[in-house]
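Students often ask why we bother encoding 3D structure as a string. The short answer is that it lets us treat folding as translation between two languages. Here is a chain of 323 residues written in the first language.
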Amino acid sequence: MFVLLVWSGAALSSHERVISPVQQLRCMLDSGKLEVMPCCYDGLTARLVENAGFKVTFMTGYGVSASRGFPDVQLVSFGEMVDSATVIASATRLPFIADGDTGGGNAMNVKRTVKGFAQVGAAGVMIEDQQQPKRCGHVGGKTVVGREEAVLRIRAACDARDELKEQGLGDVVIVARTDANALDGFEEAVLRCQLFREAGADITFMEAPKSIDEMRRYCEQVDGPKLANMLEGGKTPLLPPDQLQALGFSLAAYPTTLLSASAMAMKNALRHLKEEGKTPDDLLLSFPDLCTTVGFDDYFQDARQYTIDDENTTSKKKEAPPS
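And here it is in the second language, the structure alphabet:
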């Protein structure tokens, strides 16, 4: 698990402290400042988010599904999602929240899902109340489970978090999501978020509020940290970070920004290659920049400490046997 070492001055001081990714995330939530959270789906996109200077990211199930060749309709298995989380944890020092979808079944499946993501390095896990198979919250055809079952999922997720802490195995932030607004109305969605908080959720997430007024009322009626989902082309108004913070949100997720931008760039590059036999330079990173982006510079810098200096080595000559 990665830790962040913080100190004041050239020498270590009393201000020195070591905090885990989960603690970093909890500090963000306690700060009162909204954090912009671009979503990643593999090691490269996680690295890009970190290199751009953001402080937190989210492993989007939409992106993981797409990168494996599927739409976001729960065709990707729990094992594949954990594998993606493991890759992301190894590629970035940022705290990240993993998309736990519905938890994979009953309350016991939810507990395993939360613990599985926490054990590979996720700082948070999101659990939602859709029926299986779930799907992207901004497309048609989704349904939600009953209120009691929805709350039981979140209670199980929080129990898993508490068990990890009791066993000395770490901590994890629980994000509780409801999709009830599109199906059972705004008041039901608010009530579910309130019950999720009572069950112990650290963050609530009402998917797809349809207006600024709904976003404001949600923030007014539900306590604790809240996540806004800024999906370009989705059902929720896209607001700038300062306005989201003023409404009362703590995190602003951008779930498809990197996926959509990269898909557009790749389609354009392939079109030029097909039609013209080459891709224009302005659509490509230079090869040195590409090598830096994927981590060659960091690798070589780290590898230098293990390089043998030929000038300072001597050959071991075989001694002649005694006569």
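Translate back mentally: Strands lie at 4-6, 17-19, 35-40, 57-59, 96-99, 124-128, 173-178, 203-206, 227-229, 251-254. Keep this in mind for the problem set.
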